[in-house]
Design brief:
Strands 2-9-4-7-10 form a five-stranded antiparallel beta sheet. It has a three-stranded mixed beta sheet with strand order 1-3-8. The protein has twelve helices and ten strands. α4 packs antiparallel against α5 and α6 crosses α7. The protein starts with a strand and ends with a helix. The chain is an alpha+beta fold and 296 residues long. It has two domains: 181 residues, no CATH class; 97 residues, Arc Repressor Mutant, subunit A.
């Protein structure tokens, strides 16, 4: 059963926390506030944004296809209408939990841009892991938000809150990009696994063209995380990477076999040879037949 929360006040009530002073935003300080264990093991969906900042992690977390030990601390992001299952560590956290409704930012530029922050589409196992220096930066922003919420509201309160949330998201973007670069070994393993899977899929004539969600599911990461990781490391999106691998397979077949263009197209998963011709020409500026003739 999935519990659905439409308001932040309702969510806070079930955590045995006081009603928020502002109906559209609430901040929980794990250092001071003891959260109820009512959520432990339960599935719920919220109609607002949720950002969790944990100063320390204990144990292991899933990262791609392997388990890794993390003790640096980090952040996790949840967008409205996503389902999450609360772990059993609720009562022993250290950090902050920020909740804010889309209506808080709707009339600001952030309301239009928030969809660009891809980490709201990441899975929990793709959390942002922070260094000590980064934790201080993030912790400072949460402290500013806490100070603002503790003060009496005035005509500038919402502007200040929204600007602090945007600053928090921009730093998170920067630190995620750093994470892709500093964990290259992990991510290159993912790329290797992806290429192996694509190689097998391109020989499966019944499977159709591999899709980004399909490949991401095979790698046990979210589609958005896969694309962001590839863009950082290779400059290409996941879709572009799939197409590039497909075109390379097509070039080999066109230059080394006597298969017809249609046969190659079907083998690579295309339903119609015309679609293959169009994609090949877009990537090479040559039709498949012209490319093949260049080898004769």
């Amino acid at each position: 059963m999935t519990i659905i929360y439409k308001s932040i006040s309702e969510f806070m009530r079930d955590m045995d926390m006081p009603k928020p002073l502002h109906p559209l935003v609430a901040l929980v300080n794990y250092d001071k506030d003891q959260i109820s264990g009512n959520f432990t093991g339960k599935r719920f969906m919220i109609d607002f944004y949720k950002i969790a900042f944990k100063k320390d992690f204990s144990g292991q977390m899933r990262y791609g296809q392997a388990w890794y030990d993390f003790s640096e601390g980090g952040m996790a992001f949840l967008a409205p209408n996503q389902v999450v299952t609360m772990s059993g560590e609720v009562g022993c956290l250290d950090g902050y939990l920020l909740l804010f409704h889309a209506d808080l930012i709707r009339n600001y530029a952030l309301g239009q841009r928030i969809q660009q922050y891809g980490f709201f589409s990441y899975a929990v196992n793709e959390a942002l892991f922070l260094s000590d220096k980064e934790k201080k930066v993030i912790g400072g922003i949460f402290e500013n938000i806490a100070d603002e919420l503790d003060n009496n509201t005035d005509a500038f309160s919402q502007d200040v809150l929204v600007s602090q949330i945007e600053l928090l998201l921009n730093y998170s973007n920067r630190f995620y990009n750093r994470q892709f670069l500093t964990r290259k070994a992990i991510h290159h393993d993912l790329i290797t696994e992806m290429n192996k899977y694509l190689e097998s899929r391109f020989t499966d004539t019944q499977g159709g063209i591999p899709t980004v969600p399909e490949v991401a599911a095979q790698l046990q990461v979210s589609a958005r995380y896969l694309t962001d990781m590839l863009r950082t490391l290779t400059g290409q999106s996941a879709q572009q990477h799939i197409h590039d691998r497909l075109i390379e397979k097509a070039k080999v077949a066109l230059s080394t076999t006597r298969q017809t263009v249609a046969e190659i197209a079907y083998q690579l998963g295309f339903e119609h040879p015309q679609s293959f011709n169009k994609l090949f020409k877009r990537h090479t500026n040559l039709s498949p037949n012209v490319f093949r003739k260049s080898f004769n």
